[in-house]
Amino acid sequence: MKGKYYIQSAAAISPQESFSGPFVPQLLTLADKNLLRIKEPDYSGFIPPNNLRRMSRVLKMGLVAALQCLRNSEVSMPGAIITGTGKGSLQDTERFLKNITEYAETALNPTPFIQSTYNSVNGLIAVQQKCTQYNSTFVHRGFSFEHALLDSMMQIAEGNADVVLTGAFEEISDEHFYIKSRIGYWKKALTQPAELLTSRTPGTIAGEGSAFFMLGSKPGNHPLACIEGIKMVYKPTQEKLHAALETFLAQHEITPSDIDLLITGQNGDVNHDHYYHNLIVQYFPATTSLPFKTLCGEYDTASAFALWLATQVIKEQGLKKILIYNNFYGDQHTFLLLSNS
Amino acid sequence: MAERVFITGIGMISAIGNNVQENLRHLREQKSGLGYTRHIDTIHRDVLPVGEVAATTAELAAMAGIKELPGYTRTTLLGLVAIQEALRSAGIKDAKELPTAFINASTVGGMCDTEKVYFDILDPNKEGDFLNYIDTLDCADCTQRIADETGIDEYVTTISTACSSSANALMYGARLIQQGLVQRAVCGGTEALTRFTMNGFNSLKNIDKQFCRPFDQQRNGLNLGEGAAYVVLESESLVKERNAQILAELSGWCNTNEAFHPTAPSPEGDGAYEAMKKALKMSGRSTADVQYVNVHGTATLNNDVSEGIALERLFGSNVPKFSSTKPFTGHTLAAAGAIEAIFGVLAIREQLVFPNLHFSEKMEELHITPETQLLENYPVKNVISNSFGFGGNNASLVISKYEG
Description:
The complex is a heterodimer of chains A (about 350) and B (about 400).
Chain A: E1 2-13, H1 49-54, H2 57-72, E2 80-84, H3 90-102, H4 111-116, H5 120-129, E3 134-138, H6 144-157, E4 163-170, H7 174-181, E5 209-216, E6 225-234, H8 238-251, E7 261-264, H9 273-283, E8 288-291, H10 293-296, H11 302-313, E9 321-328, E10 332-339
Parallel strand pairs in A: 2-3, 2-4, 7-8, 7-9
Antiparallel strand pairs in A: 1-5, 1-6, 4-5, 6-10, 9-10
Helix pairs in contact in A: 2-5
Chain B: E1 5-13, H1 20-28, E2 34-35, E3 50-51, H2 57-64, H3 74-89, E4 100-105, H4 111-121, H5 140-150, E5 155-159, H6 165-178, E6 184-191, H7 195-203, E7 224-225, E8 227-235, H8 236-242, E9 248-257, H9 270-283, E10 292-294, H10 301-315, E11 321-323, H11 326-329, H12 336-350, E12 382-388, E13 393-400
Parallel strand pairs in B: 3-7, 4-5, 4-6, 10-11, 10-12
Antiparallel strand pairs in B: 1-8, 1-9, 2-3, 6-8, 9-13, 12-13
């Protein structure tokens, strides 16, 4: 997808101080687990107390990041709402699974079942904003937020929407952290974010977060950045990945030296680190790179945090072009090209 | 002008058959697939009817040509059986021959298998084959296994918008084609029955203990079903280039959100009305051009009122023949949109209108009643297929006869 898709506003809830106040990236200190949790904002300014009590964790962080993104924009009614989430509401899924066993399939409370549905955050945003337009949710690991973006860009290219609210949300529960530890997702020894990239061990540290963007065909009053293109590559060899990068850059009539900043999904996992390492050695040996997962941890839709990070640094550092390259456990790889206008 | 998008292949498995031909035969014979589960361990097994695929998971694996079972969920295997037929039907021997998109739909991924071992997974003292199912907890697992078995890799993703998931998968694939990102997309959904979902819908008091009775005054909820269905979508230029058979045209689509309530439609059917109206407008057809509507028709109290009112609002006093095929298949959730889109293709190809089983009494809120007879030699040229879901996610597709 080529074209210009302006990010008119953004909002993120993450392990960083990203939601309110000036953002200063911090390498956080982990106490006992390889897991970075979000800094929970005060949700009460967004959701009435009665509703707040009923809502599970990811619903709150998804809805509130979306509402903050709307508040930061000049848009009250987006032309579409499109999101990505790899796991949806883990808390509700776990709760309903347990309730089924505990109460022997009788007299079950339907709320966790309803909230475990992957599109429940989208439904909530739509109800809250009375937005009856196109509404969809992608649920595909490291291609969840990416397809939400691509779909948003297509909605704009098709002329169906001038502005699209797009974003992603993901939580990590203790239970799910344990489950994934059984198949090697996380590092075995406690590893601090500051040591993540030099640890030379398998696995990484878990994270979570929610980020939303108002994407428009026009810049709006205060555009943060502009999406120029996106390219996804599924389970590539290193050669195929490099070929895809070359084609992608050529389509946008730029070369690697035009990239001012490379934001990478490097996560210190020796199983998949070669993708980043080889790509940087071959194409970006002298380019400044910013590995973002030391800030937010690894999760299916961590790339949404990377995009938010890009919107924070592009103007501030006077950059013209940023390339984000991320992969999720070596299966889903994505290049995202941004410009400052 | 965006390119036209054609349906060139179809494949499916449901409670009424392991392929398209068997499904069609049972539709013609008016033979419902509803019954009681043999595969789910639940206290509801003799109480809540379901539309279950007869084959065991091991039998599905044999049908799909999978030898090493651990890690392949029933969701994946249902999907593999259906996609293999869809590719064969489109005359595609090697899906890798062209950059192709695989747009899948799922509501609970591999829950059918993970729910059986979930508490073993949580128990640090237990080890075993069940650890192979950890990654099948999400919706992407089935999609990737199906993609990897067929070799499709240009775009691989999964949509989850509850009961409208696979209708949205068809739309998304068609749009990727229109944007020129691919020339071919295989789109649909797969859904296996689970104890999780049965208890979920039962806790909402949405399941009828009798066989479901869509659009009937006495209806009292849905019956869940399982199955998978995929269509092969291709651009007009690709179809011409390879001289492919055209089964039908996907001529219009629309996705709207009701923004009304998390699990209930608006009483006036606003979302259903808008979805059908805009899909029809996109197709360039008028209401008079529609001969058959395959309704969402879950037989829940709310859905059928709002969908019926939406039909009356859109078509006035000339509502075309309509029926819900869910009394045949059960409500297959993420697979429903694709299964029913294929029924739409069959209605056009075979010139049939399928009967709405189990109907006897007109709803007091409506002036209209569904078609209860099998209509042969019925001149079906344009079909609307509806899929409406939780979260207010509504989707309508228009499927049209190809006439050049």
